[in-house]
Specification:
binds S-adenosylmethionine, 7-stranded mixed sheet, globular, 4-stranded antiparallel sheet, 7 helices, 275 residues, alpha/beta
């Protein structure tokens, strides 16, 4: 995150007002997801993530998703949030359903114009089932990292596959772990630094657990909050997909379908379910 501007770290800034306890990764045990997006976070989510609502971000995202869902297709968004992607996707003619852990985020989605076009189910994306089949399942804006255990992430892939028609696609957008920025033997990487804000990522390379630490300063006062994630490698995601019966068909550096390279800081990956 080091070279990113403050605007570009909105995916993390949106959480920073809420102190959370660390969730240590536990081997072979599913961690019950904690809702980090309560009303306080949900109320400012759209403003804090304003750049992600920009047409130049959303339009190429929607172009890819519409192509994969097919004309008048059906799509399931895991971790739908306040409907940043789901609402404009429904406007483009795709039938959209969203699963979301946070009741507060769903309340904000339902308060928006056009919300009646998006069906929603409150629940955990690794286990909640919707009685429908979809041409496309997608999980964007780094949200796979909100599952803080490998078992949880594997379960998300299995749940995505369980909702897909044969031949359907699963799309994940997530950052590439920035371990090349962390010196050998160190745990910390400063990803944003301004006069009133310091953002530091902490990596545990043994467990793949990471925390984004957000420090806000007002005068002499400081406030810190820490958000847990599990960082995950592209090849590991491919293996999770294989376990769920899916095969990689695209890996792009972004929604503009540019090639994924050694310099890419994030990726949009597309897997196809057999059949
Ligand atoms: C970064 S936001 C993304 C929201 C939306 N997809 C977007 O692109 O704006 C992450 C979302 O994941 C949700 N979330 C986190 N863990 C979840 C889980 N286990 N099941 C379902 N949703 C979850 C959060 O409540 C939050 O709405």
């Amino acid at each position: 995150m080091g070279s990113r501007s403050r605007a570009k770290v909105r995916g993390r800034l949106r959480w920073r007002r809420k102190p959370v306890e660390r969730q240590r990764w536990r081997c072979h045990r599913r961690v019950v997801p904690t809702n980090q997006f309560d009303e306080r976070v949900a109320a400012t989510y759209d403003d804090d993530s304003a750049s992600m609502f920009a047409r130049e971000v959303l339009d190429p995202t929607l172009d890819v998703l519409v192509d994969l869902a097919g004309p008048a297709g059906a799509a399931l968004e895991l971790a739908v949030g306040t409907g940043r992607v789901a609402l404009p996707l429904a406007e483009r003619g795709v039938r959209v359903h969203g699963i979301e852990l946070s009741p507060a985020m769903l309340r904000h989605l339902h308060a928006k114009p056009g919300a009646e076009m998006v069906a929603t189910t409150e629940g955990d994306m690794s286990s909640t089932r919707v009685e429908d089949q979809f041409d496309l399942v997608y999980l964007v804006f780094n949200s796979i990292g909100n599952m803080t255990s490998q078992d949880g992430q594997v379960a998300v892939f299995a749940n995505a596959a369980a909702h897909l028609q044969p031949g359907g696609h699963f799309v994940v957008e997530v950052g590439v772990p920035r371990l090349q920025w962390v010196p050998v033997g160190e745990r910390f990487h400063v990803f944003a630094r301004t006069e009133d804000y310091l953002g530091v990522d902490e990596y545990d390379v043994v467990t793949q657990q990471m925390w984004s630490h957000h420090h806000d300063f007002t005068g002499d006062e400081g406030h810190r909050s820490s958000i847990p994630f599990r960082y995950v490698w592209p090849s590991e995601l491919d293996l999770m997909a294989r376990l769920a019966g899916m095969t990689l068909v695209h890996r792009w550096a972004g929604w503009d379908r540019s090639p994924f390279t050694a310099d890419s800081t994030s990726h949009v990956s597309v897997w196809r379910l057999a059949g």
